[in-house]
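Anyone up for a design puzzle?
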């Protein structure tokens, strides 16, 4: 059995530095209203976030849920109600994955804050045949290449049906837009931008 990996000294790349409050956000600049954003297909437009089925990589059923209530960098920036609403939508996406891809021995949910400073959650099903079982999935497996388009379209239709049957958090006027929010305009952002292509690093976003 291999021993623990040695700890290596490293420094954070410059792009990981705390962004200036007025710095542009790659997500906020994109269009969240389109049903197909190239890298992913819209599954459900929620009160607090949009769920997208990822097209790239080798892991079928990989979903990203992106906060759409104005620019928010961290989970800890949310109010209690916003946190509950967003995580309810993330959980609904996870249940849809578990219902559609049976059996799923594991489901990884990650909010990494490593690269793109806009709140989003990765939901990664751990299929029995997936790469690196029992270990954190490498983002190279989630980014490189394209999945079969017929599978993507069929999975998206099934996942949309499952998500449509789940309850949604109750919308509260003004709640999805933070006082200092940006990238959405009045009433909360349905037009904040999607996550861009991940790098090939294992750390991910």
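Challenge accepted. My sequence:
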């Amino acid at each position: 059995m291999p021993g623990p990996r040695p700890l290596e000294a490293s420094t954070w790349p410059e792009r990981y530095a705390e962004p200036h409050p007025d710095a542009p956000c790659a997500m906020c600049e994109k269009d969240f209203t389109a049903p197909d954003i190239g890298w992913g297909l819209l599954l459900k437009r929620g009160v607090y976030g949009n769920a997208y089925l990822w097209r790239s990589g080798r892991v079928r059923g990989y979903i990203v849920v992106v906060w759409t209530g104005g620019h928010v960098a961290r989970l800890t920036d949310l109010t209690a109600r916003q946190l509950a609403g967003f995580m309810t939508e993330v959980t609904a996406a996870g249940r849809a994955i578990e219902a559609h891809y049976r059996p799923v021995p594991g489901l990884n949910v990650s909010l990494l804050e490593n690269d793109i400073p806009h709140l989003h959650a990765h939901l990664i099903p751990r299929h029995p045949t997936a790469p690196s079982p029992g270990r954190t999935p490498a983002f190279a497996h989630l980014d490189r290449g394209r999945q079969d388009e017929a599978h993507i379209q069929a999975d998206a239709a099934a996942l949309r049906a499952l998500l449509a049957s789940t309850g949604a958090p109750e919308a509260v006027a003004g709640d999805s837009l933070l006082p200092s929010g940006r990238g959405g305009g009045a009433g909360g952002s349905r037009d904040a931008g999607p996550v861009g292509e991940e790098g090939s690093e294992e750390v991910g976003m």
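A detail worth pointing out: Confidence is low (pLDDT under 50) at residues 178-204.
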